[in-house]
Each structure stands twice: as C-alpha cells, then as structure tokens.
C-alpha cells in the first residue's frame, strides 16, 4: 500500500502527518515504527493522524516513534494545526480534540502557532525535582552547565526508576540563561533526547514561575536545542495554572509517498 504523507517540525521536534479523514488507515505498531524510523522509513519523533471529530474541526491521534499511542504532544499539536490549514480544513483559528481533551489554537504570521494547553491543578514538589502533568507527565529538575550535561544518562535514571518505569515519564533539565529558560528534554516513547518538547517546555515554564525564575509573572521565554518558544499562563494560588498558551513555529518540511510494507507486530 502506498501512503501519502506530509512532514512538519516544531523547533526541531518532527512529525509524520497522515490524512485519515476517511478512516481508511489501520496501521500496525510495526508499520508506525517503520514510518518513524530514521534509517528505514521517513524519520520522525512521532506520527500524527488527522481525523474527523463531531463538534470539533478535527481530531489529533498521536503515536510516539516506538509505534505506541501516547499522550498530548505540544509541538505536534501546533504542527497538526498548520497541517489542517494546509489541507484547507481551517483558516486562522481552530478547536480540535486530542487525547487530553479540547484545544484551541490560533495561526499567527511567520509560521507561528499559539496552542492552548490543558489546565494544571497540581504540581508535586520534591527535594530535588518537580512532577506535573501538562497533557503528558513531566519531571523537571534544575541543573548547572546544561549545555554539557549528560541528559540521556541522567534522564534514564529517573525514567526507569521504581516510580516511573511502568507508565514512564518525560524528564526535563532546566537552567535560567539570561532572560530565557534553557530546557533540554528526554522523551518517553522516543527514549532519547529530542530537540524540543512542547508539553515539556510548558512544564518547565510553570516550575520556573513557582521558583520566581520566569521571564515575568505570567510569561516565560524558552530556549531549546531546536529553537525558541513562549509560554504564557495565569496562576491561582500556588499550584493552579490556567489559560496556558504555548507559542512557537510549526513548519512544513516536505511531502511525499512511501510504500508501506506488510509488517506485523
């Protein structure tokens, strides 16, 4: 079977996009892994199906590069909005369904997309890390010398510890750098460091706010290996955040078609 695809990236976090509005695509885990493979397939951190959804403009169905369904992806969310616009499904704003519920988004000039994230009502503070869910679970830790920090090695100690090994967690290491927050993220499902993680930088911005290190009271500039993002929010009490918006680029890379092998799991 020949599959037509589009490739998008948001601050270096890249995705294979498939149009499944007719519901004809029934991909196996092995086929999903093949499409995301950087050596044998197209290559991506994840794969996203765009599908029809009553009461919304579309539905976002997201898989990690390991071929398994995953939780919300912030960069992927912005990219699917750009994809829906390219398909002619939406114009400058949209509402769509993802695994964590309804999202709003606005398309801005210069390939920027602003995506409303889920509210966060609980932030766990531990002795040397924070844990919270911004649509996906995230550990956030402050560290020094982040550019040289062994992210993969140290993140795997957390991701596979007794608490997180079964369900998994993403792990973010952060450092205040000038007026921005520098964030590096290890993603479960990819099981590697990615150039950027949208739910991860959102988690990092909220933690920075709790520590008084955000750019301002309701706003944080973010720097990642793949580029710059902005997170705005409103806070009630100490651990309740709402009206959270993630803003950054969502850029079309290329389109093509690929022969999908008959792989079984």
What is the compact description of this entry?
The chain is an alpha+beta fold and 265 residues long. 16% of the residues lie in helices and 43% in strands. It has a 17-stranded mixed sheet that branches.
Structure notes:
By secondary structure, the protein is α+β, with helices and mostly antiparallel strands. The protein has two domains: 2-116 and 251-259, Diaminopimelate Epimerase, Chain A, domain 1 (Roll), CATH 3.10.310; 123-246, Diaminopimelate Epimerase, Chain A, domain 1. The chain has helices at residues 29-36, 74-86, 151-159, 198-210; strands spanning 2-10, 13-19, 46-51, 58-64, 93-98, 101-108, 112-116, 123-125, 130-133, 137-142, 170-177, 180-187, 192-194, 219-224, 227-236, 240-249, 251-259. It has a 17-stranded mixed sheet that branches. A hairpin with a 6-residue loop joins strand 3 (46-51) and strand 4. The longest helix is centred in the N-terminal third of the chain and has 13 residues, at 74-86.
Protein traits:
16% helix; single chain; Diaminopimelate Epimerase, Chain A, domain 1; alpha+beta; 17-stranded mixed beta sheet; 2 domains
Q: Beta-strand percentage?
A: 35-45%
- How many helices? 4
Q: Order of helices and strands, N to C?
A: EEHEEHEEEEEEHEEEHEEEE
Q: Biggest sheet, in brief?
A: 17 strands, mixed
Indicate the percent of residues in helices: 10-25%
Q: How many structurally independent domains? A: 2
Secondary structure class reads alpha+beta
Which assembly state applies to the chains in this document?
single chain
Mean pLDDT: 96
Straight-line N-to-C gap: 17 Å
Broad CATH class of the largest domain: Alpha Beta
Count of β-strands:
17
What is the second-level CATH architecture of the largest domain?
Answer: Roll
Could you list the spans in which at least 5 consecutive residues all have pLDDT below 50? none
Q: What is the fourth-level CATH superfamily of the largest domain?
A: Diaminopimelate Epimerase, Chain A, domain 1
């Amino acid at each position: 079977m020949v599959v037509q695809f589009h490739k998008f990236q948001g601050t270096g976090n890249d995705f294979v996009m498939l149009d499944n509005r007719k519901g004809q695509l029934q991909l196996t885990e092995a086929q999903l892994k093949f499409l995301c493979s950087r050596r044998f397939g197209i290559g991506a951190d994840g794969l996203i199906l765009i599908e029809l959804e009553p009461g919304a403009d579309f539905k976002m169905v997201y898989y990690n590069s390991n071929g398994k369904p995953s939780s919300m992806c912030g960069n992927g969310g912005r990219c699917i909005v750009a994809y829906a616009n390219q398909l002619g499904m939406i114009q400058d704003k949209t509402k769509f369904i993802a695994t964590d519920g309804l999202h709003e988004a606005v398309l801005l000039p210069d390939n920027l997309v602003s995506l409303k994230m889920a509210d966060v009502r609980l932030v766990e503070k531990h002795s040397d890390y924070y844990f919270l869910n911004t649509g996906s679970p995230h550990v956030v830790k402050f560290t020094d010398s982040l550019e040289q920090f062994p992210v993969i090695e140290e993140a795997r100690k957390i991701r596979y510890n007794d608490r997180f090994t079964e369900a998994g967690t993403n792990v973010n290491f952060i450092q205040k750098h000038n007026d921005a927050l520098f964030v590096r993220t290890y993603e479960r499902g990819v099981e590697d460091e990615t150039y950027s993680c949208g739910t991860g930088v959102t988690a990092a911005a909220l933690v920075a706010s709790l520590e008084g290190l955000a750019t301002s009271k309701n706003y944080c500039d973010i720097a990642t290996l793949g580029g710059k993002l902005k997170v705005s929010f409103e806070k009630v009490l100490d651990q309740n955040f709402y009206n959270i918006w993630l803003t950054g680029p969502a850029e079309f890379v290329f389109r093509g078609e690929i022969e999908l092998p008959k792989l079984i799991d």
